[in-house]
Write a structure and sequence with these properties.
This protein is mainly α. The protein is built from nine helices and no strands. Helices cover about 70% and strands about 0% of the residues. The chain is elongated, with a radius of gyration of 19 Å.
Length: about 210
């Protein structure tokens, strides 16, 4: 992991866990990476010297936090979206379950994702790590759709399933306001249940036209 010096003692691991928690709190509050290591140090009650003993600077610290949190997010996406739609009564129902599962993951992690969308504009390593999760999430979503179609005896091409994901993801990201600061409000034309219903119908109509 770039810039990270792994701790060998439990006390050091606990200390750095406080640092990561402080970074996440500040990302949540600011909606951007606009904070200093001094603020992280004060929030975590860990000396700046101790932080520099683990990472080379703020940029490396943000990358470490992103890598660890996105690993968690990737596992969560696999668990929730990968299992969605199995045993559904119809392809439409399966599609709704898959769409809802992925959309809920994005919504629940908005305060984590949005700042890193912004940070990735100027940090190639953060951008690359974000793309790994994005590509992985797409693959999980597409596999779930293809599995649901197969279970229902419906022919569905990978190309159509991928296009359906592109439509779903772009609309969901726009609605959630990912990549904007915490002070900006997400798009609120539709209530969340209504949006989920519209997204599910859009995805289903896209794959049904295959």
């Amino acid at each position: 992991m770039s810039g990270l010096s792994e701790p060998k003692q439990q006390r050091s691991r606990d200390s750095f866990a406080k640092v990561r928690a402080a970074v996440l709190d500040l990302l949540h509050e600011r909606g951007t990476g606009q904070f200093s290591l001094a603020e992280v140090s004060a929030r975590a009650e860990v000396s700046i010297g101790s932080i520099y003993g683990r990472v080379s600077g703020k940029a490396d610290l943000l990358r470490v936090v992103q890598a660890q949190e996105f690993d968690r997010l990737d596992s969560e996406t696999e668990e929730r979206v990968g299992a969605a739609g199995v045993g559904a009564a119809s392809l439409a129902t399966a599609t709704a379950e898959i769409v809802t599962a992925y959309a809920q993951v994005l919504r629940e992690n908005r305060d984590l994702l949005s700042p890193f969308f912004l940070l990735g504009v100027e940090d190639a390593e953060i951008l690359a790590r974000g793309r790994v999760s994005g590509d992985g999430g797409q693959a999980i979503f597409v596999r779930a759709l293809l599995a649901a179609a197969s279970e229902q005896g419906v022919a569905l091409s990978t190309q159509s399933a991928t296009w359906a994901f592109e439509i779903f993801y772009s609309l969901c990201v726009r609605y959630l306001g990912l990549g904007v600061t915490a002070t900006a409000s997400p798009h609120d034309t539709y209530a969340w249940p209504d949006l989920l219903d519209r997204l599910a119908r859009t995805v289903y109509l896209t794959i049904a036209a295959d």
